[in-house]
Design goal:
The complex is a heterodimer. Chain A is an all-beta fold. Chain A has one domain (39-133): Sandwich (Jelly Rolls), CATH 2.60.120.10. Chain A is built from no helices and 10 strands. Chain A has strands at residues 5-12, 20-27, 39-48, 54-57, 68-74, 82-87, 90-96, 100-105, 116-120, 125-133. In chain A, the strands form 3 sheets. Chain A has a 4-stranded antiparallel beta sheet with strand order 3-10-5-8, with no helix packed on it. By secondary structure, chain B is an all-beta fold. Chain B has a domain at 36-130: Jelly Rolls (Sandwich), CATH 2.60.120.10. Helix content of chain B is 0%, strand content 49%. Chain B contains no helices and 10 strands. In chain B, strand 6 and strand 7 form a beta hairpin. Classes of the chains: A mainly beta, B mainly beta. At the A-B interface, strand 1, strand 2, strand 3, strand 5 and strand 6 of A face strand 1, strand 2, strand 5, strand 6 and strand 7 of B. Strand 1 of chain A pairs antiparallel with strand 1 (4-12) of chain B, so a sheet runs across the interface.
Amino acid sequence: MATTIAQLTLTSTDLLSDSLAVSSVATLTAAGSSTGLTRTEGLGRKQTANTTEYTLFDASNHTDDKAHKIYLKNLSTTAAEYFIVEVAGTVVGRLYAGDWAFFPWAADTTSTNCDVDITPSANDMMLEYMLLTDE
Amino acid sequence: MAITTATIDITSTDLGISLNASTNLSKTGTSTGLEIMDAGYGEVTVAHSAKALLEASAVSGDRNTSNYFYLSNKATDETYYLIVKLHDTIVGRLSAGDWMFMPWNQSDDVAEVNITATNGTCAYEYAVFKSAYTLVDSTPA
């Protein structure tokens, strides 16, 4: 059984009148169990050529409702450049230059097509990605 | 200008992963730090309907901006999980002990973040960082 640890740290000394220090540590496990995740796709990078929408993860290639986790990072260094991130055709948010995201993914194909799509705001942008899964 | 840093470390000797990424959370399209934040802790019981954790701004000028939220499922029973939705769209299942950090567009006033507890009550912790959030006028009783 593989042991995979994901740790988040949020810090700020000047956002509030008191220091912000949030730390959260998760040992990533298979759905509904304490068995560690066993597979990964990536770590990888994708270069996008233009501002059309790209499918990053196709839900039909994965099993519904497993403990999938997705990591994304926008490698741009131009502050105004972002990726629009969509799940199942719904805009989740804009991932701006240098920012990263880590979130669970249902990969549902039963009630909806839960693809993860990205749309770059400019030509020639680079995205780093990884999928951790128990399928 | 506030500097708020979000850092992720993913490590697994078994899967050969040693990843670190760090970013300063900035206002939309700039390198100026975000200054609006909300955070909290609560419990959500098993219910047939989703509970709104974060409401999107009702003001159109606040939409399509740089916002991020953190959510952690503090349940300890491995069979308990939170279904995380953006309005009606399922993003994923947040298992007991897991956390997530992702951008949030506030695309429109029905782009709220919903959570539903499954198999048992889940305590949760959250924080949200926003570029813009305009308070609306109060409605007198």
